Structure formats: structure tokens, C-alpha cells
Amino acid sequence: MADQSDTPIKARGLEGVIALESELSSIDGQQGELVYRGYNINDLAANASFEEVVYLLWNGELPTEAQLDTLTERLQSERALPAPVLDLLRATPDTAHPMAVVRTAVSALGLYDDEADTATPEANRRKASRLLAQIPTIIAAFSRIRSGHEPVEPLDTHSTAYNFLYMLNGEAPGEAAERTFDVCLVLHADHGLNASTFTSRVIGSTLSDMYSAVTGAIGALKGPLHGGANREVMRMLLDIDEQGADPADYVRERLANKERIMGFGHRVYKTMDPRAAILRDLVKDLSEERDARKWYDYSMAILNTMKEEKGMDPNVDFFSASTYYMMGLDPDLFTPIFALSRTTGWTAHLLEQWSDNRLIRPRAEYVGATGKSVTPISER
Ligand code: CMC
């Protein structure tokens, strides 16, 4: 191996740097393709459930029916929160950012897991299941508590999508809502070495524990340049609606002010994000079904303007925003829902990291002052 101190590579934002090998997902930024363990995202979104995708990412292959049943039952049995974590949610200010709440509650979950610091592969797999089972409960419970309702106890039946919508709204979701939400979960489950996944692997690479790594990943996902963009997209759409603005003029004005249009651009995709294409079709269908065509129309006007003005395409966050909104979900829950799904990828990457660990530790080029000497404090 080359001595890195002799051959430093400088890449601001680690752009174009291959930091590790992964078998989990691959992105072709030129063709606009996303593949999980060899399966194209279009195929998975059309033909596999979220739980099947979880199995695939954690184990390397799609499950048999028996394997799927075992995973599903395990997730169903782990959904309830430890009582102190529920108490923590009750004590949290109603005004707290839901991503800060999820981050805090996930960190707290680690305090009540006897296996938190047990680093065997089996214990790490069990923790991955617990996190994936309990994060939906955290989001739904906080959403209900802050609006003055009692949390709804999780079901020990049904899919992750069904149970989450049930806990959130206190009533059974329809088949169409469950399926739409399930597709959204499939689309967000993994995405190469994105910022939050990298964060989780950096933390994991120090041989810290899974709760610490996922807590850090949630912090990274919160930012508007990453998962936080979906909430900002909805703010923009609502703003256009309230102002009665022309979406194209609105976008041009913001671009003229050197503002970024959330939900556009990507570090890897140089064409349309394939997840955005799937979600665009969902938005079209939902907007027709719900007689809410304006959200699709605004979105398409923004998309066309961004293409004309900047040659830029939408990413996953652009159309997920109006999908969730039309499903009746609060805009500030959009990013936590992204976290719910991406927990699959974070934990799969941690299992992969620990199967052949190497500390992730890049270097910085020092550009600060040199040659100074300390003046005694009394003389400064
Ligand atoms: N709106 C307007 N201009 C943009 C945008 C945008 N959304 N994104 C990039 N640009 C411009 C940017 O100003 C720069 O122009 P110039 O060269 O004239 O200074 C040029 O495009 C290249 O941008 P960059 O910042 O070097 O690109 P990057 O690879 O660092 O950024 C990005 C990628 C996703 C952070 C960026 O496109 C962005 O800020 N997008 C908006 C936030 C967003 O939608 N994030 C979600 C990302 S995908 C899902 C996820 O990870 O959650």
C-alpha cells in the first residue's frame, strides 16, 4: 500500500475520492441508475417490499418467504420503546425539531439496551433490528405527544409502513397509502457513501457502538444539503401557493438572489435521480386521486425552470416532499421518515464496516499561521 503521507490527495468535500469498498449499493451518476446489491431500484420499487429490501441489504440476497417471515416477526416484536424513552419524549418541548428529537431518543435507546456495547456480529444484527423497529415508534409517538394526543402503541402485526401510519394517525391506513409509503421507504433505504452513511462508518470505524454511529448519522441527515432538503422543498411549494406566485418566476427570482433551490442538484447524479423519476409518477397519481393537481403542476413548473436556467435535475427530496404532503404527513416529519428508512443503509454499512474494519481518518492541509511564540498572558 502506498505511503499516504508521501502521496496526499487533496479533494475538498472528498469529491471523487473512493474511501472504501462496499457491496451494498451502486450509483451510476451519468446514466441515473441506482442498484442495491445488484438489483435496479426500479425493479425493487415495483416488485419488492421494504422488508424484503431490508433483508437484501443486511444479508446480500432477497429473502425466501420463510426468511422474510422471520425478519418481519423480529421487527414486529421489537417496536415498543423502553418506558424511560417514552417519558423522555413526553418531556421534550413540543417545538423541538423532530430530527433533534429522533437523534436524542436514538442516543437514549442505547442506554437501555444491554447489548449496546456488545460488538459481536450477532449482537450488532440484533441492534440493527431494534433500531429499525423502534425509530418509527419514536417519530410517531413524538408527533402525537406534541399535538396533545396519547402515543398509539405499536402493532405486533403488519408491515413497517402500515404500522407507522397507524401509530401516527391512530387509524388503519388504506392499502394504497401503505403501498405508496412502502415504495418511499424502499427508495430511501441506501445510497452509496452519502454524508450520513459516511458519518456512520466514520464513527463505526473507531469501534464505537451502533447507537453512537446511528445517532451521528441522524445529525448529518438533518442538514438541508442532505435529508433536510425535503422539508425545505415543501416550504417552497407552500410559499408559492400562499403567495399565489408563478412557480417559474419564483424560482428565477431566487436564483437571481443566488439562492439554492432545494431538491435540485446532486454530488453524484449528473442526470435525473432515478428515485425522483419514480416519485414524480407517484406525485402525479396522488395529485389526481386527491384532486390536488396544483402540487404536481407547481413541481413540474419548477423542474422545467431549473432545467432551462441551470440545466439541473431534481433529486429524491424534490418529489418525496409533495408525496408525503398529499399523504397528510407534517412537513417537519419528512426528514425523520427519511431517517427511518435510511437506518437500513446505515446499519448495513456498519455491519459491512465491522466485517473488515479500518479506521477512517483523512488529513487536513494546514493553512494557518506558523512560527509564532507565546507572549506571557499579562503582556497580551
Ligand atoms: N440550486 C441552485 N444552484 C445549485 C444547486 C441548487 N439546488 N445545487 C448546486 N447549485 C449550483 C451551485 O451554486 C454551483 O454553482 P457555481 O459553480 O456557479 O457556484 C454549482 O451548482 C455546483 O454546486 P456544488 O455546490 O459544487 O455541488 P455539490 O456537489 O457540492 O452539491 C448539493 C450537491 C446536493 C449539496 C447541491 O446540489 C445542493 O445544495 N442542492 C440543494 C440541496 C438538496 O437538494 N439536497 C439533497 C441532496 S440529494 C438527497 C440527500 O442526500 O438527501
Largest sheet: 3 strands, antiparallel
- Specify the number of helices: 16
User: What is the radius of gyration?
Assistant: 22 Å
Low-confidence stretches: none
**H and E order:** EEEHHHHHHHHHHHHHHHH
* CATH superfamily label of the largest domain: Citrate Synthase, domain 1
Number of DSSP strand runs: 3
For this structure, the quaternary state is: single chain
CATH architecture of the largest domain: Orthogonal Bundle
Strand content: under 5%
State the secondary-structure class: mainly alpha
Number of domains: 2
The CATH class of the largest domain is identified as Mainly Alpha
Task: Give the distance, in angstroms, between the N- and C-terminal Cα atoms.
Answer: 48 Å
Main sheet strand line-up: 1-2-3
CATH topology of the largest domain: Citrate Synthase, domain 1
Share of helix, binned: 55-70%
- Overall shape: it is globular
